[in-house]
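Memo to structure team: turn this sequence into C-alpha cells by end of day. - J.P.
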Amino acid sequence: MATSYDIVRTLIRTEKGTFLEAERKYLFEVAKTATKVDILRAIEDIYKVKVQSVNTLVVPGKKKRVRQALGHTPDWKKAVVTLKEGQKIEVT
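Reply from structure team:
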C-alpha cells in the first residue's frame, strides 16, 4: 500500500499556482495511478487541512531531440486541490 508521500510527490510553485492560492486552490504533482479519493486523503493527512474537491489531469510529455535520436519526457499527473473555507496550506 502506498503512503501519503508516495501519492503526493510535490507542491507545484509556479506563477499560475501562486495566483490560484487566493481562491484556496493548490497544484500538486501526484502519482499517475492515484485516484481523486487517494489524493484527498493524502493531502488531508500530510497538511492537516480539509479538502473540498480534487480535479486531476494528465500532462502529456514533450517531444525532445538529442542529435538524431528522438524521444520524449514522461507523462505526469497534476492535481488541483480546493480547500474548504478558512483552510490554508502554509508555504515557505
